[in-house]
């Protein structure tokens, strides 16, 4: 990790800069796959699955029998763990449900707003080195709570054409049954345009590699909504002299093992902690199966030593990390002043990994500084909020002059007439 | 208007198709302006303002004196009308404010979610044939309620280099003072990248022409958030035999006068109403200052006669209109079944124009079928919802096995270790 000691405020922007990835280099390839799936449907999906995933798939949809059997392939302990995570995530996301807001803004002018589920949603669950079944909980639970009628799940098959039983078991547990063994750009294309087997959806959720990200960007331009713009996963840890260097090292490593492009930032007011953390990193990294990935990620990662807690907060708010761990004495006070972050973990017993899996909060969060303007996935992401209004004749009369004057001043006389005609019809 | 009587369900998609506008044709021009403002700052903004708006502007920012003086240029009646609209919009949007959600998902595992304002936002207010000051209310009021610290407003100047006093008065009334006489792509560029005079923002709101829309799309790809993807404004009216054809015609015209690409759809179960509405349109259109625009918009607009209210609902939900007027006996029941719309107006005394200006609901709404997945602008649009969690040692112990098992099954051993190290440190 690169260490910056008391850097000038003017140099922060440069230090905190994230690597730029230019997806336009992939666009031609991605556009071609999108177009072919749009034109050829299932046949193109099968072709690209053979080409990219080396899997020759017959039925794109996972059968009920496969879903049933998935249960037998998992240990009882893992199934229980997934069940506990599901309960916590359900509890936290249930608190996000809203009753309608109803306001009578003037006598006879009733306005309200209703949460209504997006009818058709698609969940993309990457696979690859490991089956990321936790993503199904994080996307599927709020989708079910919101009341989405059609939930489609796509995930890339192994070379045997199958999905991992942990994926199938988790999906089944939360009631998702429209599951397709399709990944990559072809999955995004199929959910965007629909094929003979795979239904078209209105919004697509889920992480993915650079091709999937590029495909989501392109279909968004065509009108399909997406959850979030994507970037590599990140953590920032802020620690003071009360922190345990071993805990900090373990948090930095849980981010670093995600991928060589993972962003890891450690900010501290306590200079002695730096060497202790570096030592703990060395000790802990050697036992990791994904050590080589973590080593590469740490090479591009940064440690910033600052004078005060207030400076640390400024660095953090400027960086806008996806995950923020506050391992310090006054974590509650510091947390109150965080304005840019995806999810915040307070105190020494709150590692990021509890939020990644099971505490209840969502792990689909804004990366790449997007936390300045975007929120993580929640029930909100699966609903639209539609406004309604109903005026009585009295209400219309009360508001008529206001609307007539404003419409007139904006030169929109038909807008004015729509009020005047009604008023004068009495 | 084109009339379709009892069309086959299979033909609906074709009938409801919106015209496709390909913004990629503008991209080269727009990219050039974006790039030049990024490199040259204020100088480029001035150059493009002279080129596109024919205005030679000195200070980009509107002075306090100009803001003060705007009050003298408006009639008392108009100022009062704007004040009434402001009050109603504030009332409705205040109901959207949220207290934090706090959930203890397991003993010792506390999770909560907080609404935090986006720090820096930019509001774009088009001008052109008329000063659209109502847009300032619709964007500025939720921005202020949310607590955005920096609110920047850009609007194109007239050839005299000035902004219309109604724009300035409205902005001042709701406490917006960072106002710039800059419009078009150069305004979007300035707010995205920042210039010497114009601050950079995290999210840009507001309608605009095709160039502005294209610029918003392009900066979104670079990480600046935007309110909504844009398209021409739309209304769908559903009416039965209880409706007044004059009212319907007035609503269709208030949409049609917006622009020649405005989308107007009239759905009815009552065939006799069609001729009556067409006749009322002919009567009302002739007195409109924007008659020629309305005539063109109506040429591309459609009337669909359906058998039942249920069919009408299906047509409407498939179309997903920005505005939906339900002029029918059982508007409340029908409204309950609307799943895709931006804003819904119930009954014969609820014309769209009351919502456009003053009833309290927001008029920045999803067009182009985006209502299937997007909501209109609200306080939500100006905040992020950040999640927080704090575990006690007991909480960590309670959840540890769950996280360890799941991380292990996903092959992420550093994630597992972050929990184990803490647990075993006791």
Multimeric state of these chains?
homodimer
- The amount of beta strand of chain A, in percent, is 15-25%
CATH class of the largest domain in chain A: Alpha Beta
| Structural category of chain A | alpha/beta
Give unreliable regions of chain A as ranges. Answer: none
CATH topology of the largest domain in chain A: Rossmann fold
**What's the tally of helices of chain A?**
17
How many structural domains in the coordinates of chain A?
Answer: 3
CATH superfamily of the largest domain in chain A: Nitrogenase molybdenum iron protein domain
Summarize the largest interface: chains and residue counts: A-B, 131 and 131 residues
Helix share of residues of chain A?
Answer: 40-55%
How does CATH name the architecture of the largest domain in chain A? Answer: 3-Layer(aba) Sandwich
What about the largest sheet of chain A? 6 strands, parallel
Gyration radius of chain A, rounded:
25 Å
Structure notes:
- The structure is a homodimer of 426-residue chains.
- The longest helix of chain A is centred in the first third of the chain and has 19 residues, at 76-94.
- Chain A has three domains: 24-226, Nitrogenase molybdenum iron protein domain (Rossmann fold, 3-Layer(aba) Sandwich), CATH 3.40.50.1980; 231-375, Rossmann fold; 392-424, no CATH class.
- In chain A, helix 3 runs antiparallel to helix 8 (184-193) and helix 5 (76-94) crosses helix 6 (134-146).
- Helix content of chain A is 44%, strand content 17%.
- By secondary structure, chain A is an alpha/beta fold.
- Chain A is built from 17 helices and 14 strands.
- At the A-B interface, helix 5, strand 2, strand 3, helix 9 and helix 10 of A face helix 5, strand 2, strand 3, helix 9 and helix 10 of B.
């Amino acid at each position: 990790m690169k260490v910056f000691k008391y850097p000038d405020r003017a140099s922060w922007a440069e230090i905190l800069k994230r690597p730029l990835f230019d997806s336009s280099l992939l666009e031609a390839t991605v556009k071609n796959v999108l177009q072919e799936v749009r034109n050829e449907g299932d046949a193109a999906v099968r072709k690209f699955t053979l080409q990219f995933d080396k899997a020759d798939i017959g039925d794109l949809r996972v059968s009920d029998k496969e879903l049933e059997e998935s249960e037998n392939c998992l240990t009882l302990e893992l199934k229980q763990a997934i069940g506990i995570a599901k309960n916590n995530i359900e509890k936290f996301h249930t608190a996000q449900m809203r009753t309608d807001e109803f306001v009578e803004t003037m006598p006879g002018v009733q306005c309200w707003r209703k949460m209504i589920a997006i009818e058709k949603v698609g969940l993309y669950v990457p696979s690859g080195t490991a089956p990321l079944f936790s993503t199904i909980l994080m996307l599927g639970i709020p989708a079910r709570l919101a009341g989405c009628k059609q939930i489609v799940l796509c995930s890339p098959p192994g070379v045997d054409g199958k999905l991992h039983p942990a994926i199938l078991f988790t999906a089944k547990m939360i009631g998702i049954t429209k599951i397709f063994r399709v990944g990559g750009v072809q999955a995004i294309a199929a959910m965007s345009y629909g094929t003979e087997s795979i239904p078209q959806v209105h919004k697509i959720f889920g992480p993915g590699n650079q091709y999937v990200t590029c495909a989501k960007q392109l279909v968004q331009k065509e009108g399909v909504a997406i959850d979030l713009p994507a970037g590599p996963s990140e953590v920032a840890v802020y620690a003071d002299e009360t922190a345990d260097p071993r805990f900090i090292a373990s948090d930095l490593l849980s981010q670093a093992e995600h991928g060589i492009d993972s962003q890891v930032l450690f900010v501290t007011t306590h200079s002695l902690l730096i060497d202790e953390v570096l030592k703990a990193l060395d000790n802990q990294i050697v036992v990791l199966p994904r050590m080589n990935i973590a080593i590469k990620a740490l090479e591009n990662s940064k440690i910033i030593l600052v004078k005060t807690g207030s400076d640390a907060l400024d660095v953090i708010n400027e960086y806008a990390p996806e995950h923020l761990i506050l391992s310090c004495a006054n974590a509650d006070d510091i947390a109150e002043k965080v304005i840019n972050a995806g999810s915040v973990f307070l105190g020494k017993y709150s590692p990021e990994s509890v939020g990644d899996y099971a505490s209840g909060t969502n792990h689909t969060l804004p990366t790449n500084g997007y936390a300045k303007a975007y929120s993580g996935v929640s029930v909100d992401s699966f609903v639209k909020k539609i406004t309604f209004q109903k005026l009585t004749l009295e209400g219309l009369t009360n508001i008529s002059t206001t609307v007539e004057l404003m419409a007139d001043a904006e030169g929109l006389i038909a807008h004015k007439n729509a009020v005047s005609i009604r008023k004068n019809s009495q």
